[in-house]
Amino acid sequence: MQNLDELSSEILSAVEAADTTDALEAVRIDALGKKGRISLMMRELGGMDPEERKTAGQTLNTVKDTIAAAIETRQAALSRIALDARLAAEAVDVSLPSRPETEARLHPLSRTIEEVVAIFAEMGFTVAEGPDIESDYYNFTALNIPEEHPARQEHDTFYLPPDEEGRRKVLRTHTSPVQIRTMEVTEPPVRIIVPGRTYRSDHDATHSPMFHQCEGLVIGDGIHMGHLKGCLIDFCRAFFGVDDLPVRFRPSYFPFTEPSAEVDIGCTRDGGGLKIGAGDDWLEILGSGMVNPRVLANCGYDPEKYQGFAFGMGIERIAMLKYGIPDLRTFYDSDLRWMRHYGFLPFDAPSIHAGLVGGTV
Predict the structure, then answer these.
(1) Are 172 and 156 in contact (CB under 8 A)?
(2) Which of 64, 58, 2 is nearest to 32 (CA)?
(3) Average pLDDT, the chain
(4) What does the buried/exposed string (b/e) look like for 272-308 if buried means 16 or more CB atoms within 10 Å of the residue's CB?
(5) What does the H/E/C string look like for 288-304?
(6) CATH topology of domain 108-342
(7) Nearest to 199 by CA among 207, 191, 188
(8) DSSP string for 70-94
(9) pLDDT confidence band for 353 (50 / 70 / 90)
């Protein structure tokens, strides 16, 4: 049997000399592997006398444990060295100035939603949210939308595959289901707005299969059409920044409101352009009305005691009108040139006091 002191010293020197994990692994295999020098010496113990085997075995085990501990220590040291090298290579100087080409811009849709929320927050509204995937009950039935209504048809609405009971979920076609969910768990008074994504099977320059809406709901005792008109007139004038903006209400029909009204704002069309303000033409921007008593009853409210109004608008539409964006489809093209043109500085938060307009690049 080879002199253990010399062998141990030789192997330990090789462990210390290993400068990579691969080199260290080669030393380990040469010493402690299945055919390693220490392992082969352990096999020779079987041919020794009992007393000699006992002494040699104890010595070999001590050497084996010493070498294994040295390899483990060296492995940890090499790992630290590798980590330090990687951290040094990947270091980033956070004090360097940002590059102009990577400067972020806030999407016009995000900015518009912030503006709408800021205006209605001043009026005492809170923001409510709900799921994008809804049941037929919340999306249609509870809102007094009849079975034969076109909105329930396959060509207009995205349906999901039926479940075990044959019921199909739907991608919500409006944010009105959140109004139902809120009324089910909230005692009047209620004053909420509901911004969020909605989905309909339509796609052209002014329609998208996925778009954004913001709806509002006010429920209380003694709420009437005058409250609705005052709320929406103030909103339109604040959002478009025109203090004397003409606003008119046209009779219309929605299953979930009665009476219902479309809301138009004054504008001027001249030379192919559009200017919002007092003029000789009108532009429709949203729908509204007093909440239908059937909807109130569906949510557990007494229609004889409580009344309310609701309204809804397309976020893309009012953003296009305010910021002069001609095509709705460009909102989702992920074009950085478009974002640099229509985007906003991310820290330019809108508020009623500081002003809603500004921050464009």
Answers:
(1) no
(2) 64
(3) 87
(4) eeeebeebeebbebbbbbbbbbebbebbebeeeebbb
(5) EEEECHHHHHHCCCCCC
(6) BirA Bifunctional Protein; domain 2 (3.30.930)
(7) 207
(8) HHHHHHHHHHHHHHHHHHHHT---T
(9) low
Residue 144 contacts residue 255 (beta carbons within 8 Å)? yes
pLDDT recorded at residue 311: 97
Phi, psi of 61, rounded to the nearest 5 degrees: -60, -40
Domain ranges of the chain: 4-88, 108-342
How many whole angstroms separate alpha carbon 74 and alpha carbon 31? 15
Length of the chain: 361
Q: What is the distance of C-alpha 162 from the center of its chain?
A: 27
Backbone angles phi, psi at 219, to 5 degrees: -130, 135
Query: Cis peptide before 189, with omega less than 30 degrees from 0?
Result: yes
Give the predicted TM-score (pTM) of the model.
0.67
Residue 186 in contact with residue 118, Cβ under 8 Å? Answer: no
Q: What b-and-e string marks burial along 187-219, b requiring 16 or more CB atoms within 10 Å of the CB?
A: ebebbbbbbbebbbeeeeeeebeebbbbbbbbb
Q: Are 289 and 269 in contact (CB under 8 A)?
A: no
Is there a cis peptide before residue 251, judged by omega within 30 degrees of 0? no
Return the C-alpha torsion angle 309, 314, 319, 321, nearest 10.
Answer: -90
Radius of gyration in angstroms for the set of CA atoms belonging to the chain, rounded to a whole number: 36
Torsion sign over Cα 322, 323, 326, 330: negative
Under 8 Å between Cβ of 255 and 145? yes
Tokens matching residue 215: 């709806």
DSSP state of 155: T
DSSP 3-state percent helix, strand, coil across the chain (nearest 5): 45, 20, 35
DSSP string, 9-45: HHHHHHHHH--SHHHHHHHHHHHHSTTSHHHHHHHGG
**Spatial CA neighbour of 266 closest among 252, 248, 251:** 248
pLDDT one-digit tens code per residue, 177-227: 999 999 999 999 999 999 999 998 876 666 678 899 999 999 999 999 999
344 vs 250, residue with greater confidence: 250
- Confidence at 357, pLDDT banded by 50, 70, 90: low
Summarize pLDDT for 39-56 with one digit per residue, the tens: 888 877 777 778 777 887
- Which pLDDT score is estimated for 175? 94
